[in-house]
Design brief:
The protein is α/β, with parallel strands linked by helices and 222 residues long. It has 7 helices and 10 strands. The protein has a 7-stranded parallel β-sheet. Strand 2, helix 2 and strand 3 form a beta-alpha-beta unit.
């Protein structure tokens, strides 16, 4: 793990956008298409605002969420909505979006979605966030099915129904996230910095983020 600290969040957003653009550009030199998995939530928005203007061959970039709430895409809690509004605009509007949830129940189209994603693995570039509880994507501490989602032979996707959340979710599993070729984690504030420090000495079952910290670039600002 490599930790980079910034004086403020605006500086972090601009610099991380440049880092991600460079990682995508490098991946595009070696592959016809590349895969770029990104989180939802409030943290990545400013990064997306800068990254969408990057001068890349975006039509060769396949963007997917690290996880998705099982809600309509028009819902304000939809990660797809955030990604389309903040990242897949400007120059990045030509990127291909790969949704994790298409309606119905969480399990309804899981097999078809996994089959769609397999050709895009391993992930070329991964951007992650982390909660104060040390969850990442929708891999929450103590949730049912977490152990299976962290094993080396886990499927591509898992359905998460954490008791702390109002809806079911579909999430990439531990080995898919950890197997990304270029891994990046953004966290803000002292609580998440403390959580990250704790996670480094805890097993993934208690701190899921620890399953993906190896060789990950971590960016932090107050």
């Amino acid at each position: 793990m490599r930790l980079v600290e910034y004086a403020d969040r605006d500086m972090l957003a601009i610099d991380v956008a440049n880092v991600l653009a460079g990682a995508l550009e490098t991946a595009l030199l070696h592959h016809e298409t590349v895969s770029f998995a990104v989180p939802g939530g409030t943290t990545p928005g400013p990064i997306f605002d800068a990254l969408c203007a990057a001068n890349l061959e975006w039509d060769r970039v396949h963007v997917l969420p690290t996880d998705e709430r099982c809600v309509d895409e028009g819902d304000e809690r939809s990660n797809a909505r955030l990604i389309k509004e903040r990242l897949l605009t400007n120059r990045a509007s030509s990127a291909v979006f790969l949704p994790l949830f298409g309606g119905g129940t969480a399990e309804q189209n899981l097999a078809e979605t996994e089959a769609m994603l397999v050709p895009h693995l391993p992930l070329s570039v991964l951007l992650l966030g982390m909660g104060n509880d040390m969850h990442t994507a929708s891999l929450f501490p103590g949730m049912e099915g977490l152990d299976a989602a962290l094993t080396s032979d886990a499927p591509v996707l898992t359905v998460a129904r954490p008791e702390t959340q109002p809806e079911a979710r579909v999430s990439l599993t531990g080995p898919v996230l950890d197997g990304a070729l270029s891994k990046h984690l953004v966290i803000f504030g002292p609580e998440k910095r403390d959580a990250l420090d704790r996670a480094m000495t805890m097993p993934p079952e208690e701190a899921p983020i620890s399953a993906v910290l190896n060789n990950t670039n971590v960016y932090w600002a107050e």
